Amino acid sequence: MEGTRRRSTTTTKPFRKLTDHDESSALTGPKASDALPLPLYITNALFFTVFFSVVYFLLTRWREKIRNSTPLHLVTLSDIVAIFAFVASFIYMLGFFGIDFVQSLILRPSPDVWAAEDDDEDEEDLLKEDARKVRCGQALDCTAPPQKLAVVPSPPLKPKVVDEIPFPTTLNEEDEEIINSVVAGKTPSYSLESKLGDCKRAAAIRREALQRITCKSLSGLPLEGFDYESILGQCCEMPVGYVQIPVGIAGPLLLDDKEYSVPMATTEGCLVASTNRGCKAIHLSGGATSVLLRDAMTRAPVVRFGTAKRAAQLKFYLEDPANFEVVSTAFNKSSRFGRLQNIKCALAGKNLYMRFSCSTGDAMGMNMVSKGVQNVLDFLQKDFPDMDVLGISGNYCSDKKPSAVNWIEGRGKSVVCEAIIKGDVVRKVLKTNVGALVELNMLKNLTGSAMAGALGGFNAQASNIVSAIYIATGQDPAQNVESSHCITMMEPLNGGEDLHVSVTMPSIEVGTVGGGTQLASQSACLNLLGVKGASKETPGANARLLASIVAGSVLAAELSLMSAIAAGQLVSSHMKFNRSKKDVSKVSS
C-alpha cells in the first residue's frame, strides 16, 4: 500500500511521509541530551561544580572532626544535604561517562524496524552504523577485520589470537574452562601444576591464558620439545615456554695436556669464532696450563648486639683457633661434602659480619653453605643469647655483585691459567706481533681499566666467555658478575720473540650437580667436557676441572680479541661475522 511503511512482521501501520531531517534522525537515533531541561554543556558544568564543591566541603568537615576528636558518624543537617548532593552528582557523572554505552544499547533503533520496497539504502546505512560500533571483545587481535555488509546482521565475532600457533593441538572443554578461570582470576596461575598434575598441560594452559589477558601472541616462543617436569620446584616457576639460544663449539682447547671442545651459548656473532682462533694459537704453541689456587664458597650473615664491645667478643671467639673445631662440627653436620675452612669477621659498630668459607664438592654450593651457616648461628645463640640475627646474607659474601672481598679473598674456585705463544704463531695466526700485544695490554687492560676505576675488570672480555659457558652448562648466569673478575697479563719472552700470556680469576663459581646442570641440554654440554655430574673418584674434581676450562677459554678469547684490536681487525671481523643479511623471522617461520 502506498503511503505506508511495513514492519518486518505481517502487521502494518499507517505513517506520515518522512522528511530528510526525519530520516536522518531515525537513522542516528534520539540523543540522550534531548531529555535534559538545559543544554548538555550547562548541565555538565553544573553537576561537575556541585560534585567537586561537595567533596571539598565533606573533606573539610571530616578534617575538623578528626582535629576535634568528634566521631565521624555524627552528622549535621548540612552534612546530610552534602552527602545527598554528592550521591546525586556522582550518579549523574556515571551516567554521563556511560552515555555512549546506554545510547548504543537502548536508544539506537533496531535495523529491522522498517521494511519497504524503497528502504534498502536505509537498512544498509543502519548496518554500517552497527558495524562501526562493534568492538573486539576479549580477543587478542584488538583490531576487528573489515566485515562484508549484508542485510542480515552478522553473528558475533569469535576471539582470535594473532599469529597463534596450534598449541596445544586440542583444547578440550575442561582446558577451556580452566583457561577462563585463570583469565578471570579465580584460579592462580602458579597453582596449575599442583591442581592438574601435568606440568606440560599446565604450561600450555598458562600460556593460552597469558595470551588472552595481554592481547599479545607468543607464537615465536616454543613450547613443545621441553621436559617441564625437570624444572618443577627447582629451576623455574610458572613456565610458558623456553628460549632458544644457539650453542657453538670452540676448540679443541689444549689445557693441561688434554683437549676440550668448549660449548658456548651465545647470540653474539664472532665470539665463538674469535675464541676458536685463540684455541688454535694455544694448541699450535703447545697448550696452556692451569693451577687451582683456592676452592671455597662463602656466605656471610649479619648479626647485631647491644654494644660494639659485645659484637667484638663474638668476633674474637670465632677467630680463635681453639674454637674452630667446635664451630666446624656444628657447620659440617648439614652435608657430606660441606666442610668449613675458615671464618673471616668484619665489624661495623654494633653489627658483625661473619664470612664463612667452605668446600662444597661438585656443587656450586650456595644452599650447602647457607645450611651450614644456619647451624652455626643456632649453636652460637646458646652462648650469645643477646645476638640478633638480621639476615643469613649480609652482602659480605659477596654474591652476584662486584666486590673487593671477592677480588682479594676469592670466592668459589680461584684459578690462574697461562700459555707461551710462539712468535710465528702470533704473526701467522693472530696477525700481529708480540710488541704490539704487550703494549696494548698495558694501556688497555691495566692502565685503561685503572682509569675507569674497574673492580676486577682488568681484562678485555672475560665476561663474554664466562656467560656463554655458564648458559651452555647450566650455571647461574647472574654469577657471571663476580666470576668474570680477571686480570690479563702479557709479557715478552726470549728477547721479544715469544709471548707469555696469563689470566688470573679469583672467583669462578661453578658446579656440575644441582640447579640447571640437570637439564637435558645443559647436561649434554657438561658431558661433552667430561664433567657431567659428581666425580666418583674425588669429590669436587669435576667442578674444579670445569673452572679450569672456563679460565682456559677466557685465556684463548683474550688472546684473540687483543690481537684483533692490535691489528685493527675488530670492526671488520664483526661486520663480517656479526651482521647477518638473512631475514631470520622468515627462516624461523
UniProtKB/TrEMBL annotation:
Matching InterPro entries: HMG_CoA_Rdtase (IPR002202), HMG_CoA_Rdtase_cat_sf (IPR023074), HMG_CoA_Rdtase_CS (IPR023076), HMG_CoA_Rdtase_eu_arc (IPR004554), HMG_CoA_Rdtase_N (IPR023282), HMG_CoA_Rdtase_NAD(P)-bd_sf (IPR009023), HMG_CoA_Rdtase_sub-bd_dom_sf (IPR009029)
Q: Which reaction does it catalyse?
A: (R)-mevalonate + 2 NADP(+) + CoA = (3S)-3-hydroxy-3-methylglutaryl-CoA + 2 NADPH + 2 H(+)
A single cellular component GO annotation: mitochondrial membrane
Give TM regions. Answer: 38-59, 80-99
Q: What Pfam families does this protein's entry cite?
A: HMG-CoA_red (PF00368)
> What GO biological process terms does the UniProt entry carry, in alphabetical order?
coenzyme A metabolic process; isoprenoid biosynthetic process; sterol biosynthetic process
Q: Where in the cell is it found?
A: Endoplasmic reticulum membrane; Mitochondrion membrane; Plastid membrane
Which pathway does the database say it acts in?
Metabolic intermediate biosynthesis; (R)-mevalonate biosynthesis; (R)-mevalonate from acetyl-CoA: step 3/3
Q: Where along the sequence do coiled-coil regions lie?
A: none
Q: What is its EC number?
A: 1.1.1.34
Determine the domain of life of the protein's source.
Eukaryota
Note the PANTHER family from the entry: 3-HYDROXY-3-METHYLGLUTARYL-COENZYME A REDUCTASE, 3-HYDROXY-3-METHYLGLUTARYL-COENZYME A REDUCTASE 1
Protein family membership: Belongs to the HMG-CoA reductase family.
Question: What is the protein's name according to its record?
Answer: 3-hydroxy-3-methylglutaryl coenzyme A reductase
Task: Write down the species.
Answer: Populus trichocarpa (Western balsam poplar)
